Structures are given as structure tokens and as C-alpha cells.
Amino acid sequence: MPTFVRQVEIDAPVSVVFGFHERDDALALLSPAFPPVRVVRRTGGIQRGAEVELRVAGIIRWLARHTDYEPQRLFVDEQVSGPFRRWVHRHEFESLGTRTRLTDRVSYELPGGRLVNAIARLPVEVGLGQMFAHRHQVTKRHCEASGRW
What does the alpha-carbon distance between residue 112 and residue 140 come to, in Å, rounded to a whole number? Predict the structure, then answer.
């Protein structure tokens, strides 16, 4: 199963960066303008067992469940139903003193078997690269500007 990894260092302590992800509006802030993503339903935050249902581009229904949660260290969401055969997204937070390394690690598999996955891997990873570049930029901006630490 392919795994996409993207990291960013943020000039804020891990408590601030992890706390940003726990905000009720974090997913809305992190979602790029295109394709449009709307939160349809949400139960809980990012703790184990919480769920979020999304509507992507007005047509794709995506249901994710949080399956792991370690405060200040990581949380994991997995697709229950949606466009992928399998999707596991690990959000990892590493303290670097007053800075934080945020690592997004996405293991995914597309429907359609090995050939489809081989052909579609490049466009999927380009899209993930654009999405996580946006997410990391937003996270840096909010966390570094907060000055709460």
C-alpha cells in the first residue's frame, strides 16, 4: 500500500500545534478552497471513536473515524467509507523544544486493483502534496501567530 509522507517544522511548541488540531473549526480551516469540502456531521473531536462525515466537491461522501489518540503525540483517522479502498492518516507531533515537527503520513489504496493503483499513484500524490502544502501553511500561520506560548 503506498504511503505519502509530508513534514513541516513549526515555530511553536507541540502543545500549541496539537491544540490547533483539536479546535472545532480546524478541519474547516485546513480544507483548501478546491475541491470544496463541507463537514456534514461530526461526533466528538479527534479522540478515538470520533467520526466526521464530509462532502467533497458536492458529490463524494467521505466518512472517517478516529482510531488512535495520544495527546501531544499523535492521532489517526481512517476512512470508513469514501473514494479510497483504504485510507489511514497518521498525524504525528514531535517536540523540538520550542518548535514542533508535524508529520502527516497517509497510507492509501485506490479501488480497482494493482494496475489502477500504479497508474493513479502519481496524480494522487500530486493532489496530496498540494493539499498538505496548504494544510501546513495554514497550521504554521495560525500556530506561529498565536503567541500563546
Answer: 36
Cα dist. 73→9, 117, 124, 137 in Å? Answer: 15, 31, 27, 20
Q: Note the maximum CA span of the chain.
A: 49
Would you state the torsion angle of the CA atoms of residues 43, 44, 45, 47, taken in this order, to the nearest 10 degrees? Answer: -120
pTM higher than 0.85: yes
- What pLDDT, on the 0 to 100 scale, is given for residue 113? 80
Query: Mean pLDDT, to the nearest integer, of 119-140?
Result: 92
Over residues 24-48, the mean pLDDT reads 90
pLDDT of residue 146: 66
In the chain, what are the domains?
A: 3-146 (3.30.530.20)
